[in-house]
Amino acid sequence: MLEIRGVRAGYGAVAVLHGIDLDAAAGQVSCIMGRNGAGKTTLLRAVMGLLPVTAGSVRLGGAPIHHLPAHEVPRRGIGYVPQGRRLFGPLTVAENLEIGLMARRRGAAVRDRVLGLFPRLAERLGQAAATLSGGEQQMLAIGRALCLEPAVLLLDEPTEGLQPSMVALIRDTVARLRAEGVAVVLVEQRVETALAVADRLAFVTGGRVAETVAARGLAADAPQFAAHVGV
Amino acid sequence: MTGAATGAGGVGGRDLALHLAVLAALLALQFVLPAYHHTNLARIMVLAVFAMGYNIAFGYTGLLSLGHALFFAAGLYATGLGIVHGSLAPGIAAVAGLLAGGAAAAAVGLLALRTAGVSFMIVTLMFAQAGFLVVLYFGGWTRGDEGFVLQGAQRLVFGLDLSQPGPRYGAALALFAAAVLVNLVLVRSRFGRVMLAMRENAERARMLGYDPFAVKLVALAVSGLYAGAAGAAYALLFGYVGASFASIQYSILPLLYVLLGGAGVVLGPFLGALVMFYLIDLSSSLTSAHLMVVGAALLALVLFAPQGILGTLRARLLPWLA
């Protein structure tokens, strides 16, 4: 589904990614883990076209997308939930969802499906996004991305700063999306969440994937976590 | 924070009723106002259309332009020159003026929208100043600073003599009503939502698949159409076409109207134009330092109602106001 090969990217003259490889298959959750500054968010931004890819390639369904302008990437079927949610704060929940729906001309059926995933949003449709709780904002950020009906969904630390019940809800949502065949790329710092939802773990260090392992059977005290995440 | 007030769907009942009530009040006022205020209100409605266009760019899309005098002047001069030198019928000339405003805005946008923030302000300001200098340079046609006057026969549209108070007021009100209704529909439309998204954060909108350049260009062109329509109407209703309308002052005025009345509120520009017009009118009759009074009023606005009069009212009392 999504193939990342030898990608180099960064911020101006500062290179952050030094030839990174990663795959995300339909119906699987690929979890990217690493210390702060390892290049996890940079990788997602490069995939979305928000940072220029200076070498390597990003392909979606076999077609190269790394040369596309940033606004074309979501239209090809990649949804992105950035760190910190990045909603349109003064706009209502309904308007935030509508903006997501319009991007790929999706209608009421998709909206209803999203509201089915997050019933609490249905109760808050007329409320300004900025006035929602942190967990509700995260639901809205994910829901808005799902309004594009993406084949690939990139989630950047979706459980950051959330209470346990919300973390559980996000985990359930990711599991449900996987079951529906969405390829999920998850950047996550919580080991227990990663082990609960991921099929594969990619440990990123210094702008490269240092190691990729299957999540099944891996213990929370596995040496990879201490070596690459620092827990 | 206008978006909070905008519910999903079309124009709301209360919203539409309020705007229709304002239009009805303006219709009734022409029968009771003394001649002086009658003319003033017609002028205010035309300037409000100009400011409503500015509001589409600034209040809804977040484009802080300092070049709108160019779009207003494009409408004004396309109409005036079309009648005087092109022998166009006034109605046709007015359509040319409207289109000239939109075309000027689109042309400026193609270059200026490659910048953002302060750079965008400076680039639009430079374009407007270039327009002002062009008007002066081609003084043989435009009569430069002095300008030129459209005679009564050159202001006949569909048999109506727009130099007469009644038809002039009626034409100003018709234009204003059309501008209000189109503005209401626009901000409640899907494209209106995307404009708000751009205003809030263009990169977030880009992450969802929207091209900020294209959306802002369309918004600026629509804004230019409003400015062009206002310029064309000004030429026909008040009969004077002069370089002062292409000066920096006419880029600042719509910004002040919008800030005073409320950015991102459909009626904000009208209220801002009304208050500012009469503030200058009244204070200048009392003192030659009337701009100090205006400055003090703007200072009070920034301190006590930074969202403008209607913006503050909406935040506190009327959350449904478009």
What does it look like?
The complex is a heterodimer of chains A (231) and B (322). Chain A is of the alpha/beta class. Chain A has two domains: 1-72 and 150-161 and 179-231, Rossmann fold (3-Layer(aba) Sandwich); 78-148, no CATH class. Helix content of chain A is 35%, strand content 27%. Chain A is built from nine helices and ten strands. Chain A has helices at 40-47, 72-75, 93-103, 108-117, 119-122, 134-146, 164-179, 191-197, 223-229, and strands at residues 2-11, 14-24, 29-33, 53-60, 63-64, 78-81, 152-156, 183-187, 200-205, 208-214. A six-stranded mixed β-sheet of chain A has the order 6-7-8-3-9-10, sandwiched between helices. Chain B is mostly helical. Chain B has one domain (2-316): ABC transporter involved in vitamin B12 uptake, BtuC, CATH 1.10.3470. Helices cover 72% and strands 2% of the residues of chain B. Chain B has helices at 13-29, 35-60, 68-84, 90-112, 117-137, 139-142, 165-188, 190-200, 202-207, 212-238, 249-261, 268-286, 290-304, 309-316, and strands at 148-149, 156-157, 160-161, 240-241. The longest helix of chain B has 27 residues, at 212-238. Chain B starts with 12 loop residues before the first helix and ends in a 6-residue tail after the last helix. Chains A and B meet through helix 2 and helix 3 of A and helix 8 and helix 9 of B.
Q: Using only CA atoms, what is the Rg of chain A?
A: 17 Å
Give the class-level CATH name of chain B: Mainly Alpha
Number of domains of chain A: 2
Helix amount of chain A: 25-40%
Question: Helix segment count of chain A?
Answer: 9
| Distance between the first and last residues' Cα of chain B | 11 Å
The overall strand count of chain A is 10
Q: Which stretches of chain A are low in confidence, meaning pLDDT under 50 for 5 or more residues running?
A: none
Instruction: Estimate the global geometry of chain A from the Cα principal axes.
Output: globular
Order of helices and strands of chain B: HHHHHHEEEHHHHEHHHH
The helix-and-strand class of chain B reads: mainly alpha
